[in-house]
Amino acid sequence: MVNNIPVEKAKTSKIHNVDFDNLAFGTTYTDHMLVSDFNDGEWSAPKIIPYQPVTLEPSSKIFHYGQSIFEGLKAYKDEQGSVWLFRPMENFKRLNKSAKRLAIPELPESHFIDGLTALLRLEQDWVPQNPGSSLYVRPFMFASGTGFHASPADKYKFIIALAPSGAYFSGKVKVLIEEKYSRAANGGVGYAKAGGNYAGQFYPTQLAAEKGYQQVIWTDDNNHEFIEEAGAMNVFVRINDTLITAPTNDRILDGITRKSILDIAKDEGIDTEVRKVSVKEVVDAAKNGSLKEMFGAGTAAVVSPIAAFGYKDVDYELPELGDSYASKLKKRITDIQYNRAEDKFGWRYKVV
Amino acid sequence: MVNNIPVEKAKTSKIHNVDFDNLAFGTTYTDHMLVSDFNDGEWSAPKIIPYQPVTLEPSSKIFHYGQSIFEGLKAYKDEQGSVWLFRPMENFKRLNKSAKRLAIPELPESHFIDGLTALLRLEQDWVPQNPGSSLYVRPFMFASGTGFHASPADKYKFIIALAPSGAYFSGKVKVLIEEKYSRAANGGVGYAKAGGNYAGQFYPTQLAAEKGYQQVIWTDDNNHEFIEEAGAMNVFVRINDTLITAPTNDRILDGITRKSILDIAKDEGIDTEVRKVSVKEVVDAAKNGSLKEMFGAGTAAVVSPIAAFGYKDVDYELPELGDSYASKLKKRITDIQYNRAEDKFGWRYKVV
């Protein structure tokens, strides 16, 4: 229960050092964090302690065998000062899906939901009210148990840390459709929010950045024929007036923003299709003018319009639309998140 | 230079608490470790300090984005008490290959080779002399820099830790040829010793263990048609008198034991083939009696004979051979490693 979670209060607060008008993404942390340890076969009762470093043995398996998973969600403050989460149960369920695939013990629901609620109530002053800002919530779990044998650890740590944050991307994004590297294997861990899925993307993303692209759009690892996701976000394509995104599978993250955007789009009367999207289809549509929009969708990225994509050394510019799906859908979803509109889907969760 | 590496000595030694006759694999650590930190664009001069915990911010990227790589090698003590490494430059080169793919800054050669030599000279009493035992050497590198933005860290830590160890596998190994899950994607990080590659194998390996198998033999993620590697080791198949192993590629680790075994086998006059091996070929060979042996090869596993493999709910037993390639090749390679035989390939590296 939320009120039963013990709190060890920080002696002083750092909040007065923070410039809430100029927040970067995920670089400032609040005064407290929630922790629970898996030991002797069970997760300990969660507790809130001052935000502090973690001390680990050099043989802790997190350093060697990559057992780490995370979630990302945001807390939003409305004009009345109430604090809201967006579909937190979806994050909880996905955390445990990731845990299972990485052979990490699953977390009890109350540790997540009650723990998060208690932590956010304590830290509610840290939720920014500035437009576009929010309190980014980072639940994560990793192997703290030791040993050089390549097998699952016997001890794990679960932490929720909070970071008041501004926008993830600034401005429109230029992306590269990948032809060589891959993010995930069939039968692999691509659908999990596993640390290793991110590290593998950095080098190809650096190569893309050297050519002027901010993100890579990953394609299937067999033939690089179909568009999958963009690592930090799922990808939507609008051809004529139809909004299309790839189906989730064991390579593609089941994004909460992705599925919410699909529901909102249907509610808006937009024709949506969840099906494989080939690179050829997108390139052909760009050439013949039927490609109207591309955008990414994710908790951190919200809805990020794509200005242009590169493929086989050619850049394809997307048109500038006055009344884009991206802007309409972004407004709808953020209005729900910030409690500025009716919550007809029942997605908001009131923290305080 | 080896002698210039500063040493902060441990106040007491733990060596007298260690039962060198009953060593597990990688669970006991020596008194000291080597550390170097990447900061402001360069790796600091390595130093030797007492083996001790590592303290990290909760926002350190190792916990979130999986930037971690490692190496594994062994130090062997001969009958005269001299300590040897086996092809350590190969580990150094592979560490930097892994680093590059994971967007981790590459390490200078002297940090690795001189650092390792200095550490092993200091800890030489920890190298076991018992048959089958050795001092397992674990160089590893991970992102210590902070931030929730999914991008490479700006700070990293390199550590070499040492663990006197017995055998990785006890007895013969029963393996399962995987039909559903995969270890690596084309264009992915399978060839790197990245932490995330291991975490992804644990759950399928647990499922295999529930059916009585100790290891999974991974197959390609497209059709599960070809044998790749076994996660903790590369795989060799002997059909009639020909020894076959898969070529390395971006999904398969370029094992140092693997390539040494190939060289030794050729030197022994054994017919070797490096080519794709289909599951069908192995199953057919098992059925018609031409499959004589299967074994794994890796630093930890050395040469581990496979007693049986499972595929599509059928177990295929391998014959018990009096004079197997596995036993012959294991003797040749360990005789070189422990300085019991001529080193015609120039693989040994004398530490002290």
From TrEMBL, chains A, B:
Keywords attached to this entry: Amino-acid biosynthesis, Aminotransferase, Branched-chain amino acid biosynthesis, Pyridoxal phosphate, Transferase
A Pfam family matched in the record: Aminotran_4
GO molecular function: branched-chain-amino-acid transaminase activity
EC id: 2.6.1.42
Pathway this chain belongs to: Amino-acid biosynthesis; L-leucine biosynthesis; L-leucine from 3-methyl-2-oxobutanoate: step 4/4; Amino-acid biosynthesis; L-isoleucine biosynthesis; L-isoleucine from 2-oxobutanoate: step 4/4; Amino-acid biosynthesis; L-valine biosynthesis; L-valine from pyruvate: step 4/4
Cofactor: pyridoxal 5'-phosphate
Residue numbers bearing the N6-(pyridoxal phosphate)lysine modification: 193
InterPro entries: Aminotrans_IV, Aminotrans_IV_CS, Aminotransferase-like, B_amino_transII, BCAT-like_C, BCAT-like_N, BCAT_family
A Gene Ontology biological process term: branched-chain amino acid biosynthetic process
Catalyzed reaction equations: L-leucine + 2-oxoglutarate = 4-methyl-2-oxopentanoate + L-glutamate; L-valine + 2-oxoglutarate = 3-methyl-2-oxobutanoate + L-glutamate; L-isoleucine + 2-oxoglutarate = (S)-3-methyl-2-oxopentanoate + L-glutamate
Domain of life: Bacteria
Recorded family membership: Belongs to the class-IV pyridoxal-phosphate-dependent aminotransferase family.
Its job: Acts on leucine, isoleucine and valine.
Protein name: Branched-chain-amino-acid aminotransferase
Species, as recorded: Flagellimonas ochracea
